[in-house]
């Protein structure tokens, strides 16, 4: 039986911290779906299709394994996507206690909804301070985001000046 997991998130934009979690998770499963999900609680910077293409480019540039699939999911439940692709595990990166508090209710709800378990991975502490919201803010104010994002994202944000 193939072990399939999903790494869901807004990825607005993908950061070096996300890529670290994706790389670690890809080694633990036969197939890993990196899923861009609309989060109604957040004001988006990039359209979902742009986030998907930046993820694909960044994964390719970083030479990550070929068992990674990038996809997007509209307005439905995350666990519906899991059922559709046969995934029984969600993967989330945990940077701090704040992330634990944010992720725990979602993990319990997803387990109750469809018996989908959530596994928390600890990323490299070097990325503990990196978040998409910080990147959006620094980019909007003209600061240097290259330490926080893959080169394709830095080039795109600098070119489009979003
Ligand atoms: O990167 P984010 O914004 O913290 O990711 C949160 C996300 C998109 C994974 C979460 O909001 C989500 O799972 N949305 C899908 C809707 C859903 O299934 N909600 C019920 C269970 S939490």
Automatic annotation (TrEMBL):
Keywords: ATP-binding, Coenzyme A biosynthesis, Cytoplasm, Magnesium, Nucleotide-binding, Nucleotidyltransferase, Transferase. ATP binds at residues 10-11, 18, 93-95, 103, 127-133. Residues 7-137 form the Cytidyltransferase-like domain. Pathway: Cofactor biosynthesis; coenzyme A biosynthesis; CoA from (R)-pantothenate: step 4/5. Its cofactor is Mg(2+). It is found in: Cytoplasm. Substrate binds at residues 10, 42, 78, 92. Its EC number is 2.7.7.3. The record marks 18 as: Transition state stabilizer. Gene3D superfamilies: HUPs (3.40.50.620). Reversibly transfers an adenylyl group from ATP to 4'-phosphopantetheine, yielding dephospho-CoA (dPCoA) and pyrophosphate. Belongs to the bacterial CoaD family. This is Phosphopantetheine adenylyltransferase. It comes from Cryobacterium sandaracinum.
């Amino acid at each position: 039986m193939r072990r399939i997991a999903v790494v869901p998130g807004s990825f607005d934009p993908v950061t070096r911290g996300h890529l670290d979690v994706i790389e670690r998770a890809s080694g633990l499963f036969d197939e890993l779906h990196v899923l861009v999900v609309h989060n109604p609680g957040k004001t988006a910077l990039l359209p979902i299709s742009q986030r998907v293409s930046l993820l694909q480019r960044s994964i390719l540039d970083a030479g990550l394994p070929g068992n990674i699939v990038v996809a997007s999911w509209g307005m439905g439940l995350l666990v519906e996507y899991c059922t559709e692709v046969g995934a029984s595990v969600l993967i989330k990166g945990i940077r701090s206690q704040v992330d634990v508090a944010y992720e725990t209710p979602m993990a319990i709800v997803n387990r109750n909804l469809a018996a989908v378990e959530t596994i928390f991975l600890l990323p490299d502490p070097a990325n503990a301070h990196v978040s998409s919201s910080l990147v959006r803010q620094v980019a909007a104010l003209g600061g240097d985001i290259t330490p926080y994002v893959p080169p394709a994202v830095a080039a795109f944000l600098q070119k489009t000046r979003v």
